[in-house]
Amino acid sequence: MAVKINGINHCAISVADIEETIKWYHDVFGFTVVNRSEIPGAGIKVAHLQGVGFLLEVFEAPGANALPEDRRVPNRDLMTHGNKHMSFGVPDGKKAKAELEAMGVEIAMVAEVDDTYGVFIRDNTGNLIEIFEESGDVVFNQHKDQA
């Protein structure tokens, strides 16, 4: 029997500068800080940011390695096992792309595959984020009918 889940609770990312990241996610997507802490004995700062429908957990670890260059490029990142990106649904992908560009957010790639439209961007540390148009009758939109 499968475990019943409620949906996505949170995604976690590691960043170079937690304060810069908090500002970036607030300015670009409207996230707000709901709490801050530190991992005891490790000196790792933690912040939880509230987005629409889930939390983003952000870690700043002193002396952490920078994100490898291949992890910053969507199709090259697929060549390394592990989590790839988080994806935020939007009603109009092209409008969202224009809004992101107007804010100075770098577009890493536009993906138009199997009647879908997605825009990949990088946050201030280089973590990949997909902005995904939730329209039409493609498999990625069917979850909305299963609530």
From TrEMBL:
PROSITE patterns, per the entry: VOC
GO molecular function: metal ion binding; methylmalonyl-CoA epimerase activity
InterPro entries: Glyas_Bleomycin-R_OHBP_Dase, Glyas_Fos-R_dOase_dom, MMCE/EMCE_epimerase, VOC_core
Keywords: Metal-binding
Residues of the VOC domain: 7-134
The protein's name: Glyoxalase family protein
Pfam families, A to Z: Glyoxalase
Highest taxon of the lineage: Bacteria
Lineage: Bacteria, Bacillati, Bacillota, Clostridia, Eubacteriales
GO biological process: L-methylmalonyl-CoA metabolic process
Organism: Eubacterium ramulus ATCC 29099
